[in-house]
Specification:
2 copies of one chain form a homodimer.
Chain A lengths: L4 H8 L3 H9 L6 H14 L5 H8 L4 E6 L7 H13 L4 E6 L4 H12 L4 E5 L5 H10 L2 E4 L8 E2 L3 H14 L4 E5 L6 H16 L3 E5 L6 H5 L2 H7 L3 E4 L2 H13 L18
Parallel strand pairs in A: 1-2, 1-3, 3-4, 4-5, 6-7, 6-8
The structure holds a DNA duplex (30 and 30 nucleotides).
DNA sequence: TCTGGATATGCAAAGGTTTGCAGACGCAAG
DNA sequence: CTTGCGTCTGCAAACCTTTGCATATCCAGA
């Protein structure tokens, strides 16, 4: 039912190869012919069949983006940015959420590999071995972690942590708690390293709490601990945990200062 | 480089059609042959080429999911649910975010149509004409809106609004503000309708504020208005707007009650 | 022994496109 | 007039699978 290249060729009186070139290499076809072909294509509602094109060129023009958890507010902006960048290059982003479930990850890796030209991976705790396996099947770029031999894009979370600690010590805080991220995450290690170093430099005390799940629940769980500790400021691994912590402290009866006060959190994934 | 069905056929000494059947209709092939083929396939790392398969069957086993804005916390759970349901049926969900940009929507519609078997659409303000156009190219299900002639899945936001208003009037509130959603959204109309009716029934006053952008900013913008109004409770269209409103009131110096107090909001998209 | 059905496999066409090669044509330079 | 080049278009193979049909084999029943 949908129009094929052949229909367009017939309608415009040229060979299918000319129609093909009209779309994929316009400079090779006479402007006059080109506009006639385009008119017929438009009229018939023709759109090149992606499957056929992918079959012969070996490129799908799709890029996979694997994220750990879409519901984590860290990801949406990243997804949007990737989509926008892809769109401008005539690619599409294929987002998938693993829920950090190894079974899902495993299956995804193979399923995805066959239908995308490359994969962006932002899943801090996916196992290295799975990542290496994936990288053998498809070009891979990892985000916010480092895997030897693979290209990666990382945020300077260390710098962020340092700035946050400096801000807090600048406000006079001498005892800061770091609500740490999950075990095995590169950003988590990096933040801890940088925060610890910054605190030492400023001669302040920094207590690391964790590792924790990078979720609201992970924050709630440390509320009591944070309070007992007597720290006057907390640096949280990410927004969700900060929210959870505030919630936890609140329900213990220890309200967090509001916006104008001196408690602060920075975020990363 | 990647192994094809032919390589597997050669390795296992059968015809390619047998290999094909091993994967797509296992019951048609002798168990003995089948396991030999599977072993060879495994060994060669063979995976059926999705493009070739799609080309001949006309099915991609992909489903598109168009959402207005991934960053709106309303969507991630919806996306996850769709992905999970799809996964169990051996389908993949292809999420795309339109940013409610008509140009993006327009382009997407066509680009997507050619590479998915169907589309789930949850974009409250996409134009009806574009939706109808899309529905002519690909099977379409709309979410949280109603378009004549198209199957749809809607939440009972009216019921939610009614319950919220009843809750508030039950607590004694006589004057409630409804921080309304965007113009042209089905859920927005529905909530207004139900909330108004519920307020009338309870003999309370309900003032509708809006339409507004369904964002934090949309909430912030009505803060002053809400305060001037003297309403004792506010019902917000969604979480983002509620957050924005609280923020706005806060910066005007009118703190919102915390969790234990009687202000409430319900959410929808 | 023959017939007929069930089971398992092979054969080949088909699906819509891209692309290297070759042919046609026009035109300028010699 | 010939040669050569540049521009445009046609031809046909190739990409990898699926699937209707035909063939082969085996076994049970008569």
């Amino acid at each position: 039912m949908p129009a094929t290249i052949r229909d367009v060729a017939r309608a415009s009186g040229v060979h299918i190869s000319t129609v093909s070139r009209t779309f994929s290499a316009p400079h090779l076809v006479n402007p006059e012919t080109r506009s006639r072909v385009l008119a017929c294509a438009e009229h018939l509602g023709y759109r090149p069949n992606r499957a056929a094109r992918a079959l012969i060129t070996g490129r799908t023009h799709n890029i996979g983006l694997i994220v750990a958890d879409i519901a984590n507010p860290f990801f949406p902006p990243l997804i949007k940015a990737a989509e926008s960048a892809a769109r401008h290059r005539d690619y599409h982003i294929f987002v998938t959420d693993t829920n950090e479930d190894p079974a899902v990850e495993e299956e995804l890796v193979h399923a995805l590999a066959k239908q995308v030209d490359g994969v962006l991976l932002c899943s801090p705790r996916m196992s290295n071995s799975l990542i290496e396996q994936l990288s053998r099947e498809v070009p891979l770029v990892v985000i916010n972690r480092q895997v030897t031999g693979l290209p990666s894009v990382v945020m300077d979370v260390g710098q962020g942590a340092r700035l946050a600690v400096e801000h807090l010590t600048g406000l006079g805080h001498r005892h800061i708690a770091l609500l740490g991220g999950p075990r095995g995450s590169w950003t988590s290690r990096e933040i801890r390293r940088a925060a610890t170093a910054a605190a030492r430099t400023a001669d302040a005390e920094l207590t690391v709490l964790g590792p924790n799940q990078p979720t609201e629940h992970g924050g709630i769980g440390q509320a009591e601990h944070v309070h007992r500790l007597g720290a006057t400021a907390v640096l949280a691994y990410n927004d969700l945990m900060a929210i959870g912590l505030i919630e936890g402290l609140d329900s213990l009866g220890y309200g967090c200062p509001r916006r104008s006060a001196s408690s602060a959190s920075t975020t990363s994934r």
